[in-house]
Amino acid sequence: MSRETKPAAPSLYILDTCAYFRLARSVRPLLGRAFGKPPHYKIFVIKRLVTEHLGSPRLRSKFHWISENEIQNEIASGTYMPKGRKKSTVDEAMSFLRNYVDDVYVAEAKPGPSPADLEALAVAFAIPGFVVSDDKNLRETGKAFDIKTISTFDLLEILLAD
After folding, report:
1. Does the structure show a pLDDT above 90 at 142?
2. Element (H, E) at 137
Protein backbone atom coordinates (compact mmCIF):
# COMPACT_ATOMS: atom_id res chain seq x y z
CA MET A 1 0.00 0.00 0.00
CA SER A 2 1.10 3.53 -0.62
CA ARG A 3 0.35 4.80 2.90
CA GLU A 4 2.58 4.15 5.86
CA THR A 5 -0.36 3.09 8.04
CA LYS A 6 -1.92 -0.19 6.99
CA PRO A 7 -5.61 -0.50 7.80
CA ALA A 8 -6.28 -2.95 10.60
CA ALA A 9 -9.43 -5.05 10.60
CA PRO A 10 -12.09 -5.04 11.82
CA SER A 11 -12.78 -1.76 10.19
CA LEU A 12 -15.18 0.35 8.30
CA TYR A 13 -14.39 1.90 4.94
CA ILE A 14 -16.45 4.88 3.81
CA LEU A 15 -16.35 5.50 0.06
CA ASP A 16 -16.51 9.05 -1.16
CA THR A 17 -18.78 9.67 -4.14
CA CYS A 18 -16.09 9.31 -6.81
CA ALA A 19 -14.64 6.14 -5.27
CA TYR A 20 -18.13 4.62 -5.20
CA PHE A 21 -18.77 5.51 -8.84
CA ARG A 22 -15.40 3.99 -9.84
CA LEU A 23 -16.00 0.70 -8.03
CA ALA A 24 -19.75 0.09 -7.99
CA ARG A 25 -20.10 -1.54 -11.38
CA SER A 26 -17.00 -3.72 -11.21
CA VAL A 27 -16.95 -4.92 -7.58
CA ARG A 28 -20.28 -6.64 -6.95
CA PRO A 29 -21.69 -6.76 -4.33
CA LEU A 30 -19.69 -3.94 -2.80
CA LEU A 31 -21.56 -2.26 0.02
CA GLY A 32 -22.44 -3.51 3.46
CA ARG A 33 -21.06 -7.03 3.17
CA ALA A 34 -18.18 -8.49 5.14
CA PHE A 35 -14.84 -8.77 3.36
CA GLY A 36 -11.63 -10.42 4.38
CA LYS A 37 -10.70 -13.08 6.82
CA PRO A 38 -11.94 -12.63 10.40
CA PRO A 39 -12.00 -10.04 11.72
CA HIS A 40 -13.93 -8.73 8.73
CA TYR A 41 -14.28 -5.22 7.37
CA LYS A 42 -17.19 -3.59 5.58
CA ILE A 43 -17.53 -0.92 2.91
CA PHE A 44 -20.22 1.74 3.13
CA VAL A 45 -21.31 5.03 1.61
CA ILE A 46 -22.97 7.92 3.38
CA LYS A 47 -26.52 9.07 2.72
CA ARG A 48 -25.31 12.32 1.20
CA LEU A 49 -23.96 10.34 -1.80
CA VAL A 50 -27.52 9.95 -3.10
CA THR A 51 -28.29 13.62 -2.45
CA GLU A 52 -25.11 14.70 -4.22
CA HIS A 53 -25.96 12.48 -7.20
CA LEU A 54 -29.54 13.72 -7.46
CA GLY A 55 -28.46 17.36 -7.11
CA SER A 56 -26.01 17.26 -9.99
CA PRO A 57 -27.25 17.01 -13.58
CA ARG A 58 -23.71 16.08 -14.65
CA LEU A 59 -23.54 13.15 -12.19
CA ARG A 60 -27.10 12.04 -13.06
CA SER A 61 -26.21 11.96 -16.75
CA LYS A 62 -22.79 10.34 -16.41
CA PHE A 63 -23.84 7.79 -13.79
CA HIS A 64 -27.41 7.11 -14.92
CA TRP A 65 -27.04 3.44 -13.91
CA ILE A 66 -27.24 4.42 -10.23
CA SER A 67 -31.04 4.50 -10.58
CA GLU A 68 -31.17 0.76 -11.43
CA ASN A 69 -33.09 -1.21 -8.78
CA GLU A 70 -30.16 -3.48 -7.93
CA ILE A 71 -27.85 -0.50 -7.35
CA GLN A 72 -30.51 1.36 -5.34
CA ASN A 73 -31.04 -1.69 -3.12
CA GLU A 74 -27.31 -2.02 -2.54
CA ILE A 75 -26.99 1.67 -1.67
CA ALA A 76 -29.94 1.41 0.73
CA SER A 77 -28.42 -1.56 2.53
CA GLY A 78 -24.87 -0.17 2.39
CA THR A 79 -25.46 3.33 3.70
CA TYR A 80 -23.88 4.00 7.07
CA MET A 81 -26.20 5.91 9.38
CA PRO A 82 -24.66 6.82 12.73
CA LYS A 83 -27.02 6.84 15.70
CA GLY A 84 -26.96 8.08 19.26
CA ARG A 85 -23.54 9.02 20.59
CA LYS A 86 -21.83 8.35 17.25
CA LYS A 87 -24.25 10.74 15.50
CA SER A 88 -23.39 13.44 18.06
CA THR A 89 -19.70 12.84 17.43
CA VAL A 90 -20.27 13.04 13.66
CA ASP A 91 -22.15 16.34 14.07
CA GLU A 92 -19.35 17.79 16.21
CA ALA A 93 -16.70 16.62 13.76
CA MET A 94 -18.66 18.20 10.89
CA SER A 95 -18.58 21.52 12.71
CA PHE A 96 -14.81 21.39 13.17
CA LEU A 97 -14.27 20.24 9.59
CA ARG A 98 -16.48 23.02 8.14
CA ASN A 99 -14.57 25.61 10.18
CA TYR A 100 -11.27 24.18 8.96
CA VAL A 101 -12.44 24.29 5.33
CA ASP A 102 -13.58 27.90 5.79
CA ASP A 103 -10.20 28.85 7.26
CA VAL A 104 -7.97 26.92 4.87
CA TYR A 105 -9.83 26.74 1.58
CA VAL A 106 -12.63 29.31 1.39
CA ALA A 107 -10.53 32.12 2.88
CA GLU A 108 -7.93 31.50 0.17
CA ALA A 109 -10.54 31.04 -2.60
CA LYS A 110 -9.46 27.43 -3.20
CA PRO A 111 -11.89 24.58 -3.75
CA GLY A 112 -12.13 22.48 -0.64
CA PRO A 113 -13.76 19.16 0.11
CA SER A 114 -17.47 18.97 -0.69
CA PRO A 115 -20.11 18.66 2.06
CA ALA A 116 -20.36 14.94 1.23
CA ASP A 117 -16.58 14.58 1.59
CA LEU A 118 -16.70 16.35 4.96
CA GLU A 119 -19.47 14.04 6.12
CA ALA A 120 -17.44 10.99 5.08
CA LEU A 121 -14.49 12.33 7.08
CA ALA A 122 -16.72 13.04 10.07
CA VAL A 123 -18.14 9.51 10.01
CA ALA A 124 -14.66 8.00 9.74
CA PHE A 125 -13.59 10.15 12.70
CA ALA A 126 -16.55 9.06 14.84
CA ILE A 127 -16.42 5.31 14.17
CA PRO A 128 -13.31 5.30 13.58
CA GLY A 129 -12.83 4.10 10.08
CA PHE A 130 -11.13 4.91 6.80
CA VAL A 131 -12.27 7.17 3.98
CA VAL A 132 -11.57 5.85 0.49
CA SER A 133 -10.89 8.76 -1.81
CA ASP A 134 -8.54 9.98 -4.50
CA ASP A 135 -9.42 13.62 -3.78
CA LYS A 136 -6.30 15.53 -2.70
CA ASN A 137 -8.22 18.12 -0.65
CA LEU A 138 -10.21 15.46 1.20
CA ARG A 139 -7.05 13.51 2.00
CA GLU A 140 -5.20 16.64 3.18
CA THR A 141 -8.14 17.60 5.39
CA GLY A 142 -8.25 14.07 6.80
CA LYS A 143 -4.53 14.22 7.55
CA ALA A 144 -4.98 17.52 9.43
CA PHE A 145 -7.40 15.74 11.79
CA ASP A 146 -5.63 12.36 11.84
CA ILE A 147 -8.51 10.73 9.98
CA LYS A 148 -7.26 7.74 8.03
CA THR A 149 -7.67 7.93 4.27
CA ILE A 150 -6.67 5.53 1.53
CA SER A 151 -6.91 5.66 -2.24
CA THR A 152 -9.27 3.63 -4.38
CA PHE A 153 -6.25 1.68 -5.61
CA ASP A 154 -5.25 0.88 -2.00
CA LEU A 155 -8.75 -0.48 -1.33
CA LEU A 156 -8.54 -2.65 -4.45
CA GLU A 157 -5.23 -4.03 -3.18
CA ILE A 158 -6.90 -4.89 0.14
CA LEU A 159 -9.83 -6.56 -1.61
CA LEU A 160 -7.52 -8.58 -3.85
CA ALA A 161 -5.36 -9.69 -0.91
CA ASP A 162 -8.36 -11.43 0.62
Report:
1. yes
2. helix 136-144
